[in-house]
Write a structure and sequence with these properties.
Elements: E1 4-14, H1 19-22, E2 31-34, E3 41-52, E4 60-66, E5 75-79, H2 83-86, E6 104-116, E7 121-128, E8 146-152, H3 156-171, E9 177-189, H4 192-202, E10 207-212, E11 217-222, E12 225-230, E13 233-236, E14 239-244, H5 249-261, H6 263-280, E15 290-299, E16 303-313, H7 320-327, E17 335-336, H8 338-348, E18 359-363, E19 370-373, E20 378-381, E21 385-394, H9 400-419
Parallel strand pairs: 1-4
Antiparallel strand pairs: 1-7, 2-3, 2-10, 3-6, 5-6, 5-18, 6-7, 8-9, 9-17, 9-21, 10-11, 11-20, 12-13, 12-19, 13-16, 14-16, 15-16, 18-19, 20-21
């Protein structure tokens, strides 16, 4: 990109806010709101000054003055799962998308607000660049929100048949694990941010986010971190292994213990943990990559998950392009071996995933800081149609019917909010 200097003037003040307060900020312009429950920061930016369609920040510099916060979310946005096809020439081209939707979309916003939950401090910045930019309206529309499902990519029987096909490929030694997904399409009307509010109240996931563009809206209720860069280290936290919450406290505790001790679920996680360890060696100093935690339990509104943490020291020459070439898309939503799994996904899934299972979050222009989630439990919408993706990992001892039911459990919070 051409040389661009961004002037950033910061102020700060004490405040008593929560995520719901930021839903009242969006106006007519495009905006992004990252508001995950339990995380330290709420991040809100609106009125894009420029939009990156490729991971190129060469020539972009910042002059920061005032009470500068400790994090620098210079660019906020997402990467579609299909962007991974452009990184690997051996993969077939993705299928046609149902509406205009970018593979790579990160905005530098004119106004930025950061709320630190730990110190109750609100940081606010106004940015200026030598470039002029017209205000671009978002797709968000007023009115009472209502939605109805009118299509799904797979019947239960069709999805189970695809699980059986993956097991055949595993038996042939072509793959070890494949993350299969399905999609639903809902027609909707009214203010989609009211749906986002409702979903956050029902399931305040750690990486909840709302991105409103000129031709799309993305709402994520994801529990999974893809990558974080901080203090010279890259950290990945893959999720593998899922069980529905119990109806009572005793049943819930029993289900959680069974998940923790499940050979199948621990094997799923072990495969992906090793894949992420291998991916990080491509972008980290050798031999700094390590597994910091394995098979820890995380609990959410509808499910329990098993999670690992893998990390390594960043290389001095790391760029966003090099990072994506090394690790994108995340192994927890492809399977392993990664390329073989992605080929099979391309064959079995008739519609593109778009933002679902890609990456969503923010990064500093110099790559000193970054925080991306993997957009699972996520919807993406045009002006009238809303899509929902759900899926799960298939291994040799997967039961086709149970795999389908797992996708139902994972999508329950979203479906209940769409129906209510």
């Amino acid at each position: 990109m051409q040389s661009t200097v961004v002037s950033e003037r910061w102020t700060s003040r004490s405040a008593d806010l929560d995520a719901q307060d930021f839903f009242d900020l969006p106006g007519a312009s495009c905006f992004a709101l990252l508001y995950g429950g339990g995380g330290r920061w709420i991040i809100y930016g609106d009125d894009p000054l420029l939009v990156l369609a490729e991971p190129d920040t060469d020539g972009l510099t910042f002059e920061r003055t005032g009470d500068v916060p400790p994090i620098h979310p210079d660019l906020i946005g997402f990467i579609a799962y299909e962007y991974g096809y452009s990184l690997e020439p051996l993969l077939a081209a993705p299928t046609r998308r149902p509406f205009a939707f970018p593979d790579f979309h990160f905005c530098l916003h004119r106004r930025l607000r950061l709320f630190d939950r730990a110190t109750h401090t609100l940081y606010e910045a106004l940015r200026e660049t030598p470039r002029s930019a017209d205000e671009v309206p978002s797709l968000v529309r007023p009115g009472v929100f209502a939605a109805v499902k009118d299509w799904e990519s797979d019947t239960p029987e069709a999805y189970q048949g695809k699980v059986a096909r993956i097991r055949e490929e595993i038996a042939s030694g072509n793959v070890y694990q494949v993350n299969l997904s399905r999609q639903e399409r809902w027609r909707f009307r009214g203010d989609i941010t009211s749906f986002a509010r409702h979903l956050y109240a029902a399931n305040p996931a750690p990486f909840s986010a709302l991105v409103a563009g000129a031709e799309f809206t993305v709402i994520s209720s994801s529990p999974e971190r893809f990558l974080r860069i901080s203090g010279g280290r890259i950290e990945a936290q893959p999720i593998k292994g899922t069980a529905p919450r119990g109806e009572s406290v005793a049943e819930d505790e029993r289900v959680a213990e069974e998940l923790l001790s499940s050979p199948k679920n621990r094997a799923e996680l072990a495969m992906i943990t090793d894949l992420l360890r291998n991916d990080l060696t491509r972008v980290c100093r050798v031999p700094s990559v390590r597994v910091d935690a394995f098979a820890t339990l995380e609990t959410y509104a509808n499910v329990h998950h098993l999670v690992s943490t893998v990390s390594g020291e960043t290389r001095a020459d790391l760029s966003l392009t090099k990072l994506l070439q090394g690790v994108f898309p995340g192994g927890s939503i492809t399977g392993c071996p990664k390329l073989a799994a992605m080929r099979l996904i391309r064959e079995l899934e008739e519609v593109p995933r778009l933002v679902y299972t890609g990456a969503l979050g923010w990064f500093a222009h110099d790559m000193s800081q970054l925080d991306f989630n993997i957009p699972i439990r996520t919807v993406w919408a045009s002006d009238r149609e809303l899509y929902l993706g759900v899926g799960g990992a298939v291994v040799w001892d997967s039961d086709p019917q149970e795999e389908y039911l797992e996708t139902v459990h994972k999508g329950r919070s979203i479906v209940e909010c769409l129906n209510s």
